[in-house]
Amino acid sequence: MLAKLHGYRVLLVAAAALLVMVDVLRHRAHRWSQMLESVVRQGTGHLPTKIVVSFSPGWRVIRRARITLHRGTVIRPKQFEELSRTIEAAFPATAQSETKVRHVAHRDRIVITRESITPDTRSARQRTLQSALDAASMFTDPRVSMNAGARGFQLKVEEALASLAGQHESGRNWTTDWYPDQGYLVMRLVTAMPSRVDHPLALVDENLRHLPYATGAADRIMYWDVSTSSNKPHCLIVGPTGGGKTSVIRTLLTEAARRGVPFVGVDPKMIELDGLEGYPGCGAIIYDALRAAMFVRALHTEMMARNAYIHQMKIEGAQLPLMIAVLDEFFILSGKWQRLAKTGDDETRAQLKELDPLGAWADLAVLARSAGIRLLLGVQRPDASLFGGASGNARDNFGTRISLGNLSQDGALMMWGDSTVGREVDTSVKGRGIALGDDGNPVDAQMWWTPNVDRHPNKWNQLAEREQAIIDGLLPTEAPQFTCYSRELASFIESERALATRARRHGRAPEPIVIGATATDGDTSAESPTVNGAPTGGDDFSDVIPASAVEAGQTVLVDDDHGELVPVTVDSVDVRCGATGDVVETVLTVGAGRVKTRITFDATGGVVLPEPDLVAAST
Ligand SMILES: Nc1ncnc2c1ncn2[C@@H]1O[C@H](COP(=O)(O)OP(=O)(O)OP(=O)(O)O)[C@@H](O)[C@H]1O
């Protein structure tokens, strides 16, 4: 018998060892369940009804245990927190695993599990963002807080997130897209906005109805859609002097020319668009205010003729060739019209009354689109009274909007419907501004640089070779044709061209007069363009602002008894508003000492501002 058992000795030893082992583990499980019982009792004041430490319990740490409590046992959060902390401390975490304690209240159970730790592969940046978001109470319900967010709030959040995320190694910038409906936002890296973009020679947009003019972040190209289907057919550019407005206009017009779209320009300052005279596709550039009024009226007639043509021929407006009419420095122009209507000779006044350029312009802004006429309006600042007043709801029709430099709060609201957009543009970067994306949202953009295309040696020789190459490269191989549907516009353009040719032949600029050396130096007769820098007969003013925007102490130009503009200091401003808050009338009190004059302006009345050097001289 013994010999038989001896034969199985290896097996028996193994079985004995196994039994010992099982017993040790059972002992361990028993000890742990005792330990858990006392911990639960001490921590919660309740005695568990049953504790099951699952087999095998683990060698040094528990694998799984279930503690059943009496029905309806209540454990307060604080008690549970302490309890789980004690259990977790008894079975400390290793690099691979950790102990988790859960209270399954509806089943009166506490469940302990040992879980392997999934390695945290998130970057330091992700962890920083996560912990910032965890700490931020505003995102506890993203849908509510994101929807509540006005653009200003969103910008603040974007700024904070971008600064938490820090500079990215690639040199690209963070941008944030909001999806309030889904309750999340996406942070993306985009190519930083360039600080200068030379007008590219290649057609960056093959669509002949898209006139590109700027590059936004992520190499996004901004364009003015001049197609008839576009709901943003007319373009408004706002920019202070020196802000780069003229360059944007040159970009758009050279792009128009290379796409076969001709244009006519009005430039009351005589220095902005003059270089485009004679450029392929340029019908004319008009400088004189009265001629500009004739042009706007002729354009109105052209619009009517085009509409009649569309009607008779039973064609679509899109089938007519496009043309662009540019009115740069619109407020200066309308200021000149207002002055002429007041101080011009009888014939001029009668002519202006009949031409009614502001009325014609208001009609054009609303109706020109379907006739294939596109308007490009340049102003130094957006202004409600001029846009909403005599020229109708012009602004709403200028769906494509561009702003350069910084806007005032009111200006931002008028341009972008948001008082925070366009307020912090980096003005140290030339050509930096806000442009409208094709999705209708305003974005930061770098306007392309298009040098003056003037071939006159005085201009041309000042350009760098690179700039000359841009102009050469942009020149269309074929000049766009100018098609007029009205005799009025055709003959106006012909006469304007004839005038320009004559002016070029005879020269129109008087020689400058140097003042300040000796009294006999130079001629100071009535033809002098300036006297001590002050404008005389020529309307050399720098800007026109609505009378309601004038501030006390400001120097403005007013007509004296002889129809000449003289600088005066405004003493007080009295703006009267109607029930809707619109300006009805403005009274300016001007003059020094006891002799004061009150000048009344109607809702759209503009005040002429002197050139900056004159302001300095008069203060
Ligand atoms: N997009 C641009 N990129 C680089 N430089 C620019 C850009 N736009 C303008 N500049 C620089 O700023 C100067 C002024 O530009 P520009 O003449 O177009 O201003 P403006 O707004 O038309 O001023 P004003 O209304 O008085 O004519 C230019 O001579 C040029 O050096």
From TrEMBL:
InterPro entries: FtsK/SpoIIIE/SftA (IPR050206), FtsK_dom (IPR002543), P-loop_NTPase (IPR027417). GO terms for molecular function: ATP binding; DNA binding. Signal peptide: none annotated. Gene3D superfamilies: P-loop containing nucleotide triphosphate hydrolases (3.40.50.300). Keywords: ATP-binding, Nucleotide-binding. Transmembrane segments: none annotated. PROSITE patterns: FTSK. SUPFAM superfamilies: P-loop containing nucleoside triphosphate hydrolases. Residues 218-413 form the FtsK domain. It comes from the Bacteria. Pfam families: FtsK_SpoIIIE. ATP binds at residues 239-246. Residues 521-533 have a biased composition (Polar residues). This is FtsK/SpoIIIE family protein. It comes from Rhodococcus koreensis.
